[in-house]
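Sample entry was shown:

___
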Amino acid sequence: RGEALTQILDANSTLEASQAWYALYTRHQHEKNVVCSLSGKGFEVFLPLYTASHRWKDRDKKLSLPLFPCYVFLQNPSERWQSILATPGVYSVVGFAKRPATISSVEIEAIKRAVGSCLKLEPHPFLRCGDRVRLTARPLAGLDGLLLRKKGTYKMLVSVEMLQRSVAVEVDASMVERVGV
C-alpha cells in the first residue's frame, strides 16, 4: 500500500513537472525574437501581449507590446537549459538558489484567459494589498485577483507572484464578488 502511494505521488510530480512553466529573463525588446527562436527549437512558449497606442509627431500607431517586459514564459523545457540559454536574447532563467523556479499553471492560465478576452489589458505594478475578488461575469468568470479603482474605473489585477508583475484588466464593479479572507 505504501509503495502504491509512492508511485501515485511520483506520477503526480512527473505530471506537474511536465506542465511546469518557467520564466526567462530576456534582453530589452527582444521578447518576440526569443519566442520565434525557441518555438523553432520545438519549445512551447508564451508571450502575453497587449495593444497600446503611441503617438509620434506625424502619426498615431497601435503597437503590440509585452505585458511583462523582458520576460518570456516556457513550458516543460525537459532539462534542455543549455539550448535555451544559448538562444540569442535570453539572459537567464528566473530562479532561486541557482535552480529554475516554476510558475503555477493556474497563474499562466489566468493570464492566457485575460489576454484571450475582449477586455482592455495593460501592465500594472505588482501589489500585495487590496481586496481579493472573483469575477462573476463572462468571459472571465471565476478568475481571482485584486480589485483597484483608477480614475473612476475598476480594474482587477491578475498577478504572477514569482515575477512580482501584474496585469490590470478593466472590469465593471458589478462583475466582481469578494473572496473570503
